[in-house]
């Protein structure tokens, strides 16, 4: 057939993933080191998987009573319940009052994709999205594609080399009223009580809609409650918000991309309306969500012994990360590198900001 | 807090799923029977799962060498390759020429969601979608939400009680030039060579873009090749198209919602451009796709012994469905029900059109 391709005007897209690793591999330096893995690595150089996950996966595969029927559109009910309890605490008043709920989502972007679709249709007056984080957040792309105006702010203070809560408050004071505020990874940001009160009051008076991101509860401080404390604060004060709760990283099942779009509303009635609309979008996005990741997580969260093992494994990972940070600091000290490197061990979490300047070599991206 | 909810204008959405089953359960008739399950049921009343799937699931869970790193955005490479070979045949010229490819997608709607997003951006002149099938297709909702004008056509001939290829050709003659044509479940439509030629020539001359749906290859006739023969015909003649290839139903892993958006292009160069753009949308939709379903399917498709077992299990299901249809026909004959019921056993596939009139009771939906 000699006809023209219907795709003749489609150019190759700019590559989004893997480019940093590719450049690293092409680099012929003998002292190179890759510091930007997306997953926690074991000492053997493999992605970390909680041991209890392996055991649970096997138990599920061996279970002859399980059926593999489609999950409901909203997802696995027990998974949603267990995840909400993990986030807000087992005895959360908001859970008792049934004013927090969720939809089982797919992948790392699913919660933002779903939430953004809802906000675009049902909160038409919210046109601006402000993303505040101490790292690049992918969700900007999603909101931008849907026609929102997106601003991104970093809370990193490059003089004091820390996540700075006063930058957070300052940003809040300057963003437009009626914005959607995506609050990314800020677990390192240590607010004073005074700063918290100020923050809450600005969000309320400027009618800002918060959209939290909890990418790896438990992997910041090693303490599950500590990592979601600020969210519990918001919900106890009656704020309404969305939250992307991802559960792939803290269980080490990166390849199952599973989580919840959490909805906090003023009442159960409002919650049910929002969830029912979200299910319409789910139907169009992916239909019924995949079950494996959710089954593994639910089995662990609902079994006290397995839950204990998992919590312990999280602590182990966090301690190991801290140990690596200590070693880096010590090495820099021994080398007599000028400056103070205490900021390295002051930071909790899976990420570490070294505060080094980059030497640009060839194609090294910004 | 006494403030108004930001969700106060959000109504409850019309329920999309489960309403038929709900009404059935509420019906107090003692002779009621539910005929609209979405999955194949075993005699024990459980959703059918190919035995070889259970075995493979266990092997995967036991494999200590597997790592659970994020899959690439485009998905599991070996899964895509194996699925394309299943669809087009191992020795397909189009596969050799690398002008067919695919993206690993999530859920039953994922391929249409992804394909529709691409067509909306890159084929702006295609504004009309015509869906032709012998059942209701959910993808209409997806295209409609994105602003396409959607027309739906049935090939069911209610006089002769069969899927009628002449209706298909007639529809094609009347739809607007430059339409997207979604070709749903038409495996029951037995085209003559003449009708095929006519169909191809209309599609070409009216610059219609075909978007096929292969929801359960092998469950129509029990023969994998037979079920995708018409697609091989299209690709061998150099047509460009999209195809939603779902692999959940024919492996009995309904709860893993896994498949491929298949792209057939004129050349490898065009294909690579299209796939690269699709990956941009994947990044925003769900990020990296879940792996379990794809791993199970790949393990089976790439192992001749397991593949043989699976093929055999498909034949078993199809024979069983045919047996049920025979029994229904025989029962109607024994009861002396007026009319001919041969159309019941003339139909292949998981669905059966009885040609009964509904007695509307209370809330029974249309």
From TrEMBL, chains A, B:
InterPro entries: Aminotransferase_I/II_large, Asp_trans, PyrdxlP-dep_Trfase, PyrdxlP-dep_Trfase_major, PyrdxlP-dep_Trfase_small. Belongs to the class-I pyridoxal-phosphate-dependent aminotransferase family. Its cofactor is pyridoxal 5'-phosphate. Homodimer. Its EC number is 2.6.1.1. Residues 43-349 form the Aminotransferase class I/classII large domain. Pfam families: Aminotran_1_2 (PF00155). This is aspartate transaminase. The keyword Calcium does not apply. It is an enzyme of class 2 (transferase). It comes from the Eukaryota. Gene3D superfamilies: Aspartate Aminotransferase, domain 1, Type I PLP-dependent aspartate aminotransferase-like (Major domain). Keywords: Aminotransferase, Pyridoxal phosphate, Transferase.
């Amino acid at each position: 057939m000699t006809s023209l391709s219907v795709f003749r005007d489609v150019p190759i897209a700019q590559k989004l993933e893997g480019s940093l690793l590719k450049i690293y591999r092409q680099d012929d330096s003998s002292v190179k080191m890759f510091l930007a893995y997306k997953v926690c690595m074991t000492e053997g150089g493999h992605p970390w998987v909680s041991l209890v996950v392996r055991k649970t996966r096997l138990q599920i595969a061996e279970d002859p009573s399980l059926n593999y029927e489609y999950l409901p559109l909203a997802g696995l009910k027990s998974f949603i319940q267990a995840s909400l309890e993990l986030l807000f605490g087992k005895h959360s008043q908001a859970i008792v009052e049934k004013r927090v709920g969720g939809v089982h989502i797919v992948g790392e972007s699913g919660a933002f994709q779903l939430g953004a679709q809802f906000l675009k249709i049902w909160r038409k007056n919210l046109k601006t999205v402000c993303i505040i984080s101490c790292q690049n957040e992918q969700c900007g792309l999603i909101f931008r594609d849907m026609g929102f105006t997106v601003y991104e702010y970093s809370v990193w203070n490059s003089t004091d080399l820390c996540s700075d809560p006063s930058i957070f408050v300052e940003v809040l004071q300057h963003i437009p009223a009626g914005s959607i505020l995506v609050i990314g990874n800020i677990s390192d940001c240590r607010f004073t009580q005074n700063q918290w009160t100020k923050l809450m009051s600005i969000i309320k008076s400027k009618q800002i809609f918060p959209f939290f991101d909890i990418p790896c509860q438990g992997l910041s401080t090693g303490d599950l409650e500590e990592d979601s404390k600020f969210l519990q604060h918001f919900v106890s004060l009656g704020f309404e918000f969305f939250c992307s709760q991802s559960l792939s990283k803290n269980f080490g099942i990166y390849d199952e991309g599973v989580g919840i779009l959490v909805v906090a509303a003023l009442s159960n009635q409002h919650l049910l309306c929002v969830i029912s609309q979200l299910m319409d979008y789910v139907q169009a996005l992916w239909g019924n969500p995949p079950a494996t990741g959710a089954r593994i997580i639910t089995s662990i969260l609902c079994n006290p012994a397995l839950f204990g093992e998992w919590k312990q494994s999280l602590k182990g990972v966090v301690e190991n990360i801290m140990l690596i940070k200590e070693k880096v600091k010590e090495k820099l000290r021994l080398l007599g590198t000028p400056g103070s490197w205490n900021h390295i061990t002051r930071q909790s979490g899976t990420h570490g900001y070294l505060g080094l300047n980059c030497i640009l070599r060839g194609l090294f991206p910004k």
